[in-house]
């Protein structure tokens, strides 16, 4: 393509239209290959093995209330950026823990997003929001102070229609299966309701035991009481506690179709204590008097115990370490967890995973998927580990790195040592239901671009690239998560 | 553009001419967009909010003495590279602390640079030097052993002419405002002289309190005496010491037009001690008997105190941590500070900044600009922090990373989480006056290239890209530094 | 080139043929420059200053036994990837330490490689294996389950012919000089035999003292006895031990043509103890009762002692730190060292090298080449160190990073601070003789691509780029290693 034609194309693209070549490499030769690769996977069903959508949506299939409740209030990516420029969470309706006053005028909240939409330039939120506005609601102008009300009205009107209810969108998004994430204390009533409803959409749960394995979790001791009560086990002893967890995993499999567990520890620390030491440590944490070091050791021990349970029941294990949660005490006190004040820190995998790997790392019948917020470990630690241990696989670029540049760095830094086949496709990991198609689309485009570069540089053959593109978009995730 | 035309253009470019497309992406489509973006900002005035030029230059407006004194002797990037290949600082005229003999023949020094000019291939010094040779002095051949004398003579002759005096160059460089950096003990006489002179050039100072807040700074205790004397405060008490600092900041604002402070600590450690503990710690460091740990804690406490003062007087705060200063004892002993033997090390921001952020991080009326020499923190720590805390902004790629690849990595690793609007444009941070236009030009070109890629990949609209280019080159720096 | 022509070219390339433009940048303009740069160095002789081929091959010149013994069994990159997918080392013939049964059917082993060849897509093993298949054996189809036997037969037949013996391949590969690596306890009989044979191929040794300087090395104490015996020195004293090492280095120079030493420590720790403390520490490690901390301190001290010996005898020193060796206890127990279960970890250079650098860093007559497995130190630590200290140079991208993306990151992150002339060209560092031409070819292509980008972006002149390409492929390695 000549320079003039490139410029002309750019110029003639209405700024609010999603370009069919978006996110593909600029070099025309590479783009042509990427375009074909992307086309070959663009229509594949979405397999979403890890995320945080609310199962009540699918169970109740109620209409989403309004544009701000859908796009602003629950999305920590969105209000985090606004807050960084001084717009407090109250102003965009984020509920206070003390029930204090927050903005309730949804249109006013929407206007704040619209007036500040330039802040998202260059960020994945920009991509996700525009993708949803355009592909889901047919918005054909850019969000701005001027267009705010028109777009609000258009989305609000759509949300009242049956084809914008959760199940209809689920089907329209071509979701083959989606996993939510629940605490072991959850009764999975929504999952049961979905199954009982006769609806064909496949929604499964994932077992996230942080509330009952992390002594620093709010309400930990009371949670252990509850765990005992709902399982009929005596959680005052370590043996009873472990039995309760095993029972609960079984319940998740039976009632929630669960195929995986998820562990969000501050570090990747693992331990393999003697039965005696583990029981003594449990007694300390059970009493609520554990020191931070004991809490860390207990979490470490529980990762290894969870691996042992996974060997027995076949659940794929996910480890999501490295977030310094709730870094901002003021925001945490006012608004609680998951409100955008989590900051990553350096994370060690080589030493920290050793105890677990020494015991289970050589088992090809176990799958442990590692994630990171510390990109320095991609080439230094994660790819060498996953390129060796049969039990290990690498999860996709996560959280702050679930973005075009982040995904590109992931492939560039992981592939040469771990290959493609020690990775597990894409996770959207989102609470933002409307962003799911956009996120999977970004991943497919970036992978197509990466593969296209390998083809253009004659490092991968064309036919191989098509096979790999399919594997990354569909096959690997189904295999790793047994979906 | 066809391949043949590309090659032809490359071949037909005389090797010593600055190419109009230099530093723009090679892909013709992307380059065409980058060229337009660059053209839209190339002529904007230079706002230089942080640097180390000598205010005496602007005050006295004396001629620069000779080419080597301008380009070689004071530039640690230049003699560092020569030293790495065994050419000692004495041989290029760097003064010894003991007054021992060093080369004084400026032409001989210049020839050493010329003979070794290939060492700078691929480095920013290559760009900066060639840019100054060509745009300032009209040199039309490459520096080499053969051309050394001709170029020396041409530059030397130019330096005698009035249009090469500091003020004339300042105007020719289209500098709207430049900041120097002074110690609180400086009387700012040069700044006062500039103002008194009636010259229209705007030169401001920045408040760099290291000599009086870092117990490891040479002469620290004596510096506190001086600080007391010049402010009329009693620096034997912590209260008097803090008052002295507040007074001195006020003096910097009034006499030097100061709008910012700058802090060059070895780490990003902050502390928020009780008034009592802080006073007791001050008594220790005041006595000159502080341990290294106490010195570190005092520096940490002073960052928080400085933030408190900034809340009161509105000065923007810059934190430049992470350099292991004076790594080479022999060179330090012979030549003193800032002679090229500073080496970066890993730097933590997430834990280290917590005390300061817990107290002031949520204030939108405070601006703290973070810099780093440890690129691993861009995506892991700095972008998440600046993408959340209202008080935080990110400074540009710094020192070793003030280079095409360094700037590109900065945008690629920072933008997706922090956006563009939590960054503050460019700093040249230089002592090398002649390199200022080159450095700002590099930044504008690299940013144009980055934005062009986003446009070419349809991740950013054209009109948005033009606005962002302008923001990055001009608006954001003025806003962040209140200039 | 038009998009259509690019696609056509890709399509018309038989998938099993090495493309002449492989690994060059996709942008046509940049590729055209890269092609010329590559062409200018493609035919240069191979200088291989560091590696692990077996000197017996060149001494005895016996035929390589079969395809699997050549390509699978000894290559830890190959069986590491198979193992990551659950294929145990026994199944591909890796010998067990206990002599237990492993697969001996070489054709069966080959079929396992063939059936799993897709695992290597995107990895350097894919490039190296295909390069050797095609350029050495003329294989014209891709390795797969279907082609496995045909390819096996073709290679097996070739190996019986004289032109596939080690010396013939050495000559065909255009190797000017290759270095093997031996323990100080090795008698260098193969090196002596090569020299006595009258063959013109130049094979030198490198002095790798880990077995006698690392107290954690298996058999360390017995090794010291042997060292004493073969040198006639009394290794019960530190003085005798140091004399023995000096003698042994001399022997390596005289018998093995040695020009360099190599040090594979877990960290880059160095120390500069007093003579008394060093002797006392030696007594501890000599007795076999050293703690891990003492072992670490002894290794640290020995790096400094080795630097002192290098100042005296002129051997170039290589430091290869940062591998957590034998991370997997089960595989280590079954198969021993170097079987793919080494994992890198974070490595500090700035503090750890200080004692050695304080003593010897300023000597331009000493060459210490630093390598890393921790890419985060390229721009943060290694480039600033090598861009300052006359004694330091940077080794090329190593081990897991000896790959297209790894080499590209190396140049991008190192050049701007250290330049090209503080680097030392390429090391293949391999046991896989057949991969040597492929590895050097990859390095030359990636460097050509990097330089071409600098030219295309007008950051480097064409004539300079040709000179640098030649320096990187040939001149710098000969100079740094005195070959």
Shape of chain A: globular
Supply the CATH architecture of the largest domain in chain A. Answer: Alpha-Beta Barrel
Element-level helix/strand string of chain A: HHEHHHHHHHEHEHHHEHHEEHEHEHEHHH
Report the C-alpha radius of gyration of chain A, rounded: 23 Å
Q: Quote the distance from N terminus to C terminus of chain A.
A: 42 Å
Most extensive interface between two protein chains, with residue counts: A-B, 59 and 55 residues
Q: Please mark out the parts of chain A with pLDDT under 50 across 5 or more consecutive residues, or reply none.
A: 1-14
The CATH class assignment of the largest domain in chain A is Alpha Beta
Mean pLDDT of chain A: 95
Assembly level: homotrimer
Spatial strand arrangement across the major sheet of chain A = 4-5-8-9
Could you outline the blueprint of secondary structure elements for this entry?
The structure is a homotrimer of 483-residue chains.
Chain A: H1 3-12, H2 28-41, E1 46-48, H3 55-60, H4 67-71, H5 76-84, H6 106-115, H7 124-137, H8 148-159, H9 166-172, E2 175-179, H10 189-197, E3 203-204, H11 210-213, H12 220-231, H13 238-256, E4 260-263, H14 275-286, H15 292-313, E5 316-319, E6 323-324, H16 329-335, E7 343-344, H17 354-360, E8 368-370, H18 377-386, E9 392-394, H19 404-418, H20 436-456, H21 462-480
Parallel strand pairs in A: 1-2, 2-3, 4-5, 5-8, 8-9
Antiparallel strand pairs in A: 6-7
Helix pairs in contact in A: 2-20, 2-21, 7-20, 12-13, 14-15, 15-17, 18-19, 19-20, 20-21
């Amino acid at each position: 393509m000549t320079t003039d034609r490139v410029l002309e194309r750019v110029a003639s693209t209405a700024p609010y239209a999603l370009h069919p070549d978006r996110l593909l490499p600029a070099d025309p030769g590479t783009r042509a290959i990427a375009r074909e690769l992307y086309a070959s996977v663009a229509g594949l069903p979405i397999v979403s093995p890890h995320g945080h959508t609310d199962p009540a949506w699918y169970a109740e299939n109620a209409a989403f209330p309004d544009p701000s409740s859908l796009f602003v209030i629950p999305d920590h990516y969105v209000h985090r950026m606004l807050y960084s420029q001084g717009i407090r969470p109250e102003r965009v309706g984020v509920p206070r823990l003390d029930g204090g006053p927050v903005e309730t005028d949804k249109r006013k909240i929407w206007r704040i997003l619209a007036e500040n939409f330039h802040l998202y330039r260059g960020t994945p939120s920009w991509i996700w929001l525009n993708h949803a506005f355009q592909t889901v609601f047919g918005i054909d102008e850019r969000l701005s102070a001027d267009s705010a009300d028109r777009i609000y009205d258009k989305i609000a009107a759509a949300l009242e229609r049956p084809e914008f209810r959760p199940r209809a969108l689920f089907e329209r998004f071509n979701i083959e299966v989606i996993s939510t994430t629940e605490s072991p204390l959850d009764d999975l009533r929504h999952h049961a309701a979905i199954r009982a409803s006769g609806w064909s959409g496949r929604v499964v749960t994932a077992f996230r035991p942080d509330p009952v394995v992390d002594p620093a979790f709010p309400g930990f001791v009371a949670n252990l009481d509850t765990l005992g009560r709902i399982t009929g086990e005596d959680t005052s002893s370590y043996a009873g506690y472990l039995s309760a967890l095993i029972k609960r995993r079984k319940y998740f499999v039976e009632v929630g179709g669960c195929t995986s567990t998820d562990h969000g520890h501050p570090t990747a620390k693992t331990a393999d204590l003697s039965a005696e030491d583990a029981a003594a440590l449990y007694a300390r944490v059970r009493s609520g008097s554990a020191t931070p070091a004991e809490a860390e050791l207990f979490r470490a021990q529980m990762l290894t115990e969870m691996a042992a349970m996974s060997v027995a029941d076949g659940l794929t294990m996910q480890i999501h370490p490295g977030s310094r949660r709730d870094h901002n005490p003021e925001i945490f006190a006012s608004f609680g967890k998951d409100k955008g004040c989590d900051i990553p820190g350096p994370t060690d995998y080589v030493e920290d995973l050793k105890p677990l790997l020494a015991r289970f790392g050589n088992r090809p019948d176990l799958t442990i998927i590692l994630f990171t917020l510390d990109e320095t470990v991609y080439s230094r630690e994660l790819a060498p580990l996953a390129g060796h241990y049969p039990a290990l696989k690498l999860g996709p670029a996560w959280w702050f790195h679930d973005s075009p540049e982040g995904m590109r760095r992931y492939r560039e830094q992981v592939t040469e040592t771990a290959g493609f086949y020690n990775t597990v496709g894409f996770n959207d990991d989102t609470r933002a239901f409307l962003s799911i198609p956009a996120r999977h689309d970004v991943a497919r485009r970036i992978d197509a671009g990466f593969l296209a570069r390998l083809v253009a540089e004659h490092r991968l053959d064309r036919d191989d690239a098509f096979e790999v593109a399919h594997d990354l978009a569909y096959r690997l995730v189904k295999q790793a998560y047994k979906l």
